Prior knowledge:
Largest sheet of chain B: 6 strands, mixed, barrel
Distance between the termini of chain B: 42 Å
Strand content of chain B: 15-25%
CATH topology of the largest domain in chain A: Alpha-Beta Plaits
Largest interface: A-B, 115 and 145 residues
Number of strands of chain A: 16
Bound molecules: iron/sulfur cluster, FE2/S2 (inorganic) cluster
Shape of chain B: globular
Strand order of the largest sheet of chain B: 16-20-17-19-18-21
CATH architecture of the largest domain in chain B: 3-Layer(aba) Sandwich
Strand order of the largest sheet of chain A: 2-1-5-3-4
Largest sheet of chain A: 5 strands, mixed
Number of domains of chain B: 3
CATH architecture of the largest domain in chain A: 2-Layer Sandwich
Oligomer: heterodimer
CATH class of the largest domain in chain A: Alpha Beta
Number of helices of chain A: 8
Distance between the termini of chain A: 42 Å
Strand content of chain A: 15-25%
CATH class of the largest domain in chain B: Alpha Beta
Number of helices of chain B: 20
Amino acid sequence: MSDRFNITVDGKPVAAKPGETVLRACQREGIHIPTLCDDTRLDPMGACRACLVEVDGQRRLQPACAWKAAPNQNVKTHASSPRVQKHQDLLVSLYMADHKLDESGLPIETANSNQLRSWAQETRPVSLEAVEAPRAARAGDKNPYIQYNPELCILCARCTRYCDEIEAVNAITLTNRGSETTIGTAGMKGLLETTCELCGGCIDTCPTGALVEKKAIEILPHQLERKVRTTCNYCGVGCQMDLNVAKVNGQEKVVRVTSPPPGETVNDGNLCVKGRFAYDFIHHKDRITEPMIRKADGNLHAVSWPEALKFAAEGMNRVKQRHGPGALGFISSARCTGEENFLMGKVSRAAFKTGNVHSCAAT
Amino acid sequence: MKSFGAGVMSNSIPEIRDLDFMFVIGSNTTEAHPIIAMEMKVARQRGARLVVADPRKIWLTEYADTHMQLKPGSDVWLINAMMKAIADEGLVDKDFIAKHTEGWPELKANLQKFNLQEAEKMTGVPAAAIKAVALEYARTRKAAIYYTLGITEHAHGTDNIFSLANLVMMTGHLGVPFGGLNSLRGQNNVQGATDAGATPLYYTGFQPADDPANRAKFEKAWNTDLPAGVGLNLNAIMKGVEEGHVKALYVMGEDILISEPNTNHLEHGVKELEFLIHQDIFMNETTKYAHVVFPGANFAEKDGVFTNTDRRVQRVRKAVNPPGNARPDWEILADFARAAGYAMPHYKNAGEVYAEIASLAPRYAGISHERLDRTPMGIQWPCTSTEHEGTVYMHKDGPVKGKGTFIVTNYRPPVELPDSEYPFNLATGRVLYHYNAGTQTRRDTGTMDKVGECFIEVHEEDAARLGVKDGDMVKIVSRRGGIKAKVWQSGRVQKGNVWMPLHFVEAAINKLTVDVGDPLAGTAEYKVCAVNLIPIKPGKPAQAEAELQAVRHPQH
Ligand code: SF4
Ligand code: SF4
Ligand code: FES
């Protein structure tokens, strides 16, 4: 586009668009600037100060996530500015003083990833006296999915802004003041008694793992075998999601569903309660695991695949011979894949010579 | 679709957040398509206007500028009255009509019947509101219409859609970004199932089955002779089962005894089938009568594609193995066809099946698993070659079928209206926390915490007259059967109307509903049916249950 212009970052030219922030321009170029409170889906808030950079002509360091790029602007990140490096080292130290640390002295890892932990590994934090912040959790919140660990919260307000700006239900909000500030609900009620729709977007956006999914809480991100990008199997929106696979008792299982990064997919990283949390059916104990045929005793019996296929093919062919192809019907499912629906059409038309084929609930 | 081709979302989901005006009719979007509702809410926060037309105070109405709470089944009246108001105000798009449509004079003449005062009486929506919404829609460029089941699963569903198509065409909101007529398809791959050719009307890619040239093309590709003409649609197959002339079924991934309307008759028919193959991941009502059960795989255990509501083809990828001897459904189908004597190719993977689809259907010709793997946003059909980028919005160069046709629609009352014996209008639908027959979500503890039992929404005055309060059990009877549920005065339904979700097996709601069916689309009248409510007195549950059994299984 013609209205693009250049800014200079760490001595190199970087293209920017009018109205764009320094952070977005840098992200497009692959220049790393640490962030905690930034989420492309939310209005910039400038709360966490992780992204501060030097801007020529500005006495103070400025947040890259909120600072608008302008033609010929000269910007320095931690890569070239000792002042920014110093700021970051101190800031990480301050966050860590008010954060739960593990035995290695790093911000702890929960079932949700902790960006503060990786940031601490990139910087040189110093040990400061721990802050006593009496931040309250919501005791007795019976919601089945979302857990809040106040000792990991950095009050970046991503979760509350998401709840307000994107999901638009305003169920959670920053409450109390000063060192008691916490993430609360009206009257500190459990989420089930609020307007919360349990979309779990707050978990997805939380940068520190203060918000985590209650199920499979003991499985940490580094214990995953892989994440598999797929399409949600519930409604017609077709949200993209990542199935998190881990070994449970030696068997690979889907233990969690997480969002793809915002901006990459049709759902922009958003999921609803069904897509994000209703995955227990995948490994449910009631799954049918063996082919079965009904025998003379009137009951279904597990048999081998060749036997079941033979029995089924003979049964259908028998009815076709006796009553003609018009007496057969093939019902496929909107739950199955395109390929499977195609094959059902082919089985019906090519193998049994009837057009009596339809997917159920064709709406 | 007869109006301007393709009954799909003409436009795209990512356009929603930049719209200026949204008209949502008969779509409980927050609960049925949560992420689309989320986009609508984002647009709304940006300053877009939102109008919701629905008989119930659905969640989305809380975000709406205007809620048109129309009487159930009066959609045709409402939409025609809107069109008349637009025509009277001289806000029609003459250029678009002249260039891209036919039949406008006839439609315009017919609109004379739909004046605002009469419309207010018929729909219950104030005349001033109908006019204001109509004019705002006509005057706003970035204005789109969304509809779903509410309007299609109805004996007059096609009339409603034709009416909306007329409204879109007369104002020229077609073939442009940020506009169009957008059908929100219910299930994940309902679009893809039809696309792929699991329909009696079409071969893969909407190629009419009754066109001999298409038949010849597929006979050549599949190396066998194929049946001429169209087959029976779902409704007709089910009728055939009830009446006994359909004698064998292969059912994949569905519980026809829960999801089909008027299941009392159907259950009888299914019992009498000479042969029934059922392929699924869980046992259900249909399995009880199956002669063969094939254990299939769920979406996390197999490869393939789903096509979402904005025509977006996206990958389904295998993450884990199916349990025990269960197998991906596409493998089972291919093996079954071979066992039955047809030389189905030995596909090595689902990608090879897709390649066959792409080779047979021009509108997917440019799509392959490999290409989808490189495209995280998916590809929207039509995509006719490997260079084609896919189609974000349709009808760019005029309606795909050539000229858009204005189809005159007239109001017809619902098949079954309330009377003294069955004084309530029952409508059915979805709730956010469950999915269709609930075989998946009901196995999830979390969603069960939120909505654990079947309920019926009742208006306060009706509840008072019946002497029931929230949580009381009532028996709900129609001409076809009876079920029970707990009363909930939700404040959402109008007087004389009741509403139930369709997820609960115990209260299999389709035992109540009418299976008349839209003559064109073959969809059943899920929406409107007359019922009576009978309070079940506490302390006499056994007797109530006995009465209910009598209604469920009438002695003929
Ligand atoms: S819970 Fe997470 S997202 Fe919310 S304010 Fe705390 S750190 Fe930020
Ligand atoms: S996550 Fe929710 S909105 Fe998205 S496809 Fe799944 S069910 Fe639909
Ligand atoms: S990311 Fe810029 S201030 Fe937090």
